[in-house]
Write a structure and sequence with these properties.
heterodimer, A: 154 residues, alpha/beta, Rossmann fold, 5-stranded parallel sheet, B: 754 residues, alpha+beta, Beta-Lactamase
């Protein structure tokens, strides 16, 4: 788990306390994510490697549903791993965890492939804190208040 | 017609039904029930009884020979005379007795008057053999044969004929009495010696017409009592065709002897001796010498023909070698083939040649008009049997049923260069009559309907429009060129395929590189942008106005770079994304593009007019991207005094300024592309900038003029057009504005969608 986590993960059973997870190897992208989520007082845990993320997911597997992440933000461009393979593994192992792909350049081929593998959304990373803030607010609102508590858009 | 089965070919006229030259081909020469009027014959059955005879046989052997046995008439059964030569004294003369088993069964015993024949001069025979053996060329051999045969056998004139592959003949050597007219060089049509007569020469190498003044002696009864016609083809004094007799008489010839020259199983030529004032009554011995001469000349001709063919072949192959060397050194097949036109013409002894490869052609020497060549090649394409490589035509007029006018050109030799239609080398030859040998068209005289003059005129009509026959060596060399080119083409196509593959791999690598590079550039770029925001948020108050201005500049430049990187990514991804082709309607594509530009259209009041609709096949997303770019440009680069108006039309390459120039796939068998033209009334693109506008990041105006942009939109649009097998280019529009032409291949619907 990243030391940059600035939000305390909720252990409560309410949807509003369940954290978002973010997997991104880019420190710059993680830092802007954490900054805007923190500013919005939205719980988030960020991970820089797949192993860290999987370890945390495994650790929480047998906990109450409220301990599980509400959704996952996933960067497909990671060193030494194929982002689409990561997505496939995550969707297979955690079928109830909505995975939203954050892409540096969400071109149509990559977008289509991600949706085919079970991504709940594909979003191009924006430029600037203001754009990130808007994105974070919208994403969190959707998964916390609009979408079903569990399950993934297919 | 060959030597073994010619008797069964076609229907012969019954003996006696002949009347005109046209009947020659159907004249049953071998069934004529008569002998020449210089002897007698009896026909004897298996019981040695005479079943038919000539009237002269009665004169020589007794009044009532019919029914008598040969033994009683000749002193021995007829069967004993077969294959032998006996002697008989009658009427104060010496007669030769020769028996022959006819093909129809009965034995025929001939009695030949040989009283005029004496021993041959031995020095003449030795001299002839020496001359024939030492001749160094076919021409010299035939001249020696003419001279030697005349001297040995005492003829007034000797002609040597040579027959073409199509059996037309020419007098190629002559020896004559000084007072006789020369006919050297005269040509005769293939009908002049009918096929069955030629076939008979293969069986009987020597044929003597002993006395044209003596009427033929019929063998009666005819047909024989069993109803069959007697086959007289083996008889020494078989009667000859009355047409031939009249022909000889018309020339003042009293007697003639013809010695066959046989080569390669066909009648190659004839040595024909004429006597004008007396009959020729050769003994069996003299005939045997004549046959030996026939055999010797035939053998010599065979050896020399083979040697000359080898020499000729060598020369042709040297020309072929020059052509192939040029092809090997040239960049293109067409360029190589036409680098040494003399060699190309000479390799098949032609006067003109057309080389046509992939829709381009070059001509050298004497050739028909371009339109005629087009039609001939079209006909070759249709006529050539599957797998055929060489096509030989010696009379284009006959081949095209007279529908083609080719001037002096009468024949062609064509080789196909590839499986695709329309790729040919076609060599041409002129009409043979236009050559020098035909300069002296003499008439042999007389108004008899079966005169030689009549025969000659028939021949002249036959050869009009024909070329000198293509020789087997020429056809083989042409075929050899084709095979060698096939190897060259194959090697080049292999090399080309490898180059294309390497180029494709390099392009893929470049695309991948551009994509990854651009993709990876964005991450630090976002970081810079975001950290500048952090800095401004966290420390803006201490940076002051100047510090914040620097941060703003950093943000602006970062954003600009992000736009450029996105454009690079777009460009690279065009090559990485497979085309998803589907049938599309142009008007629907324009509507979708208009949706993407709706905001700007609303701001500018722009209007779009789709004049022609069209069903195209292509990738919807990509084509909409092109049209969106063009609509967007029409509004961005609008004229300050005009409301943007875009007109979309459909046409062909011929409707554009560029036309077919530069269209790489302009070939007869590839359909021309669709051309969608998008015309605007904006500020236009200066003529000298119409290439530059398609270069990536190339801008004709200041960065922030006309709404900015990446400067890659048209580059991407052109790349999309190229991926659709087409092109995108801009031309000026009368009255101001630009016309962008988007060409799309019509063959995309044959490409399965990925």
């Amino acid at each position: 788990m990243s030391s940059e986590s600035e939000a305390e993960p909720s252990t409560g059973g309410r949807t509003s306390d369940r954290p978002a997870f973010a997997l991104d190897d880019s420190e710059a992208d993680r830092s802007v994510l954490l900054r805007v989520y923190h500013r919005l007082r939205l719980p988030i845990l960020s991970f820089s490697t797949l192993d860290e993320l999987l370890g945390e997911l495994d650790r929480r597997e047998n906990l109450h549903v409220d301990e599980l992440p509400l959704y996952l933000l996933l960067d497909l461009s990671m060193p030494d791993v194929d982002g689409l393979s990561v997505l496939q593994v995550l969707c297979a192992r955690h079928p109830t965890l909505p995975a939203v792909v954050l892409s540096g350049s969400a071109r149509s081929g990559e977008r289509d492939a991600a949706y085919r593998l079970g991504a709940s959304g594909v979003i191009e990373k924006p430029l600037g804190v203001a754009a990130w803030t808007e994105l974070a607010r919208g994403l969190d609102h959707y998964w916390r208040h609009v979408a079903q508590p569990v399950g993934r858009l297919r | 017609m060959n030597a073994t089965d010619w008797r069964s070919d076609g229907a012969f006229l019954a003996p006696g039904e002949m009347s005109t030259l046209d009947d020659c081909e159907r004249e049953a020469l071998h069934l004529m029930p008569a002998i020449q009027g210089v002897g007698a014959a009896i026909v004897v059955d298996d019981d040695d009884r005479v079943i038919a005879r000539t009237a002269s046989a009665g004169d020589l052997l007794g009044a009532d020979v019919l029914g008598a046995t040969a033994a009683s008439l000749l002193g021995a059964p007829a069967v004993e005379s077969v294959g032998r030569v006996g002697a008989l004294q009658r009427s104060g003369r010496s007669w030769e007795v020769r028996g022959v088993r006819s093909r129809t069964g009965p034995i025929v015993v001939e009695l030949l008057d040989v009283h005029l024949d004496g021993p041959l001069p031995t020095d003449g025979l030795a001299g002839l053999i020496s001359d024939l053996s030492s001749a160094r060329s076919v021409d010299e051999l035939l001249r020696s044969a003419a001279t030697g045969v005349r001297r040995l056998l005492g003829f007034d004139r000797v002609w040597v004929y040579r027959f073409d592959r199509d059996d037309a003949g020419e007098i190629v050597a002559e020896d004559r009495r000084d007072d006789l007219e020369s006919f050297l060089g005269l040509r005769f049509g293939e009908g002049d010696i009918p096929a069955q007569a030629r076939a008979l020469y293969l069986e009987e190498r020597v044929r003597v017409v002993r006395d044209t003044a003596a009427p033929a002696e019929p063998i009666l009864p005819a047909p024989l009592p069993d109803g069959r016609w007697l086959d007289t083809s083996g008889l020494a004094i078989r009667a000859v065709s009355p047409i031939h007799v009249r022909y000889l008489r018309n020339m003042g010839v009293r007697a003639s002897a013809s010695l066959a020259i046989v080569h390669g199983g066909r009648l190659w030529g004839l040595i024909s001796g004429h006597l004008h004032d007396r009959p020729s009554l050769p003994s069996a011995e003299t005939e045997r010498v004549a046959r030996a001469i026939s055999d010797l000349v035939s053998m010599q001709v065979g050896a020399m023909e083979r040697a000359e063919a080898a020499d000729r072949r060598l020369i042709l192959e040297q020309h072929l070698g020059r052509v192939l060397a040029a092809v090997g050194a040239a960049e293109s097949i067409l360029g190589g083939l036409t680098d040494d036109p003399d060699a190309l013409l000479s390799m098949v002894d032609s006067v003109g040649v057309v080389v046509r490869v992939a829709g381009r052609h070059r001509t050298f020497g004497m050739v028909p008009s371009t339109a005629a060549v087009d039609r001939l090649i079209g006909r070759l394409d249709r006529t050539m049997p599957p797998g055929g490589v060489v096509h030989v035509v010696e009379s284009i007029a006959e081949w095209t049923d007279g529908s083609e006018r080719t001037g002096e050109i009468a024949g062609l030799l064509a080789v196909s260069l590839a499986r695709d239609v329309g790729n040919w080398i076609v060599w041409f030859r002129p009409e043979q009559l236009s050559q020098a040998r035909w300069g002296d068209r003499r008439s042999l005289h007389d108004h008899d309907r079966l005169s030689p003059a009549g025969s000659f005129s028939i021949h002249a009509a036959e050869v009009a429009g024909r070329c000198h026959p293509w020789q087997s060596a020429e056809i083989e060399v042409a075929s050899g060129l084709r095979s060698a080119l096939g190897t060259v083409v194959f090697q080049r196509s292999e090399q080309l395929a490898r180059n294309v593959e390497a180029l494709r791999a390099a392009n893929d690598e470049l695309d991948r590189f551009a994509y990854v590079a651009a993709h990876d550039l964005k991450e630090p770029l976002r970081g810079i942008f975001n950290y500048v925001d952090f800095l401004r948020e966290d420390h803006g108050d201490v940076l002051g106005e100047a510090g914040n201005a620097l941060l703003d500049s950093t943000s602006r430049l970062s954003r600009r770079m992000a736009v450029l990187v996105d454009a690079l990514l777009d460009y690279a991804s065009i090559g990485r994304t497979p085309l998803r082709v589907e049938p599309l309607r142009l008007s629907a594509l324009v509507d979708e593009a208009a949706d993407w530009t709706a905001t700007r259209m609303g701001q500018t009041g722009a209007t779009i007019e789709v004049v022609d609709d069209l069903r195209v096949v292509g990738d919807r997303v990509q084509l909409v991207q092109v049209l969106t770019n063009l609509l967007s440009n029409a509004m961005k680069y609008r004229h300050p005094d005009r409301v943007p108006h875009v007109v979309v039309t459909v046409g062909g390459l011929g409707d554009t300024e560029r036309g077919w120039d530069g269209w790489p796939q302009h070939q007869a068998d590839i359909p021309p592309p669709w051309v969608i033209s998008v015309a605007d009334n904006g500020i236009g693109v200066p003529a000298d900038q119409r290439t530059a506008v398609f270069e990536v990041f190339r801008r004709l105006h200041g960065r922030d003029e006309y709404g900015g942009g990446s400067g890659a939109g048209l580059t991407i649009a052109r790349r999309i057009a190229e991926r659709h097998g087409g092109d995108l280019w801009v031309e000026g529009r009368p009255g101001g504005g630009s016309v962008f032409h988007l060409a799309i291949s019509r063959l995309l619907d044959e490409v399965p969608a990925p």
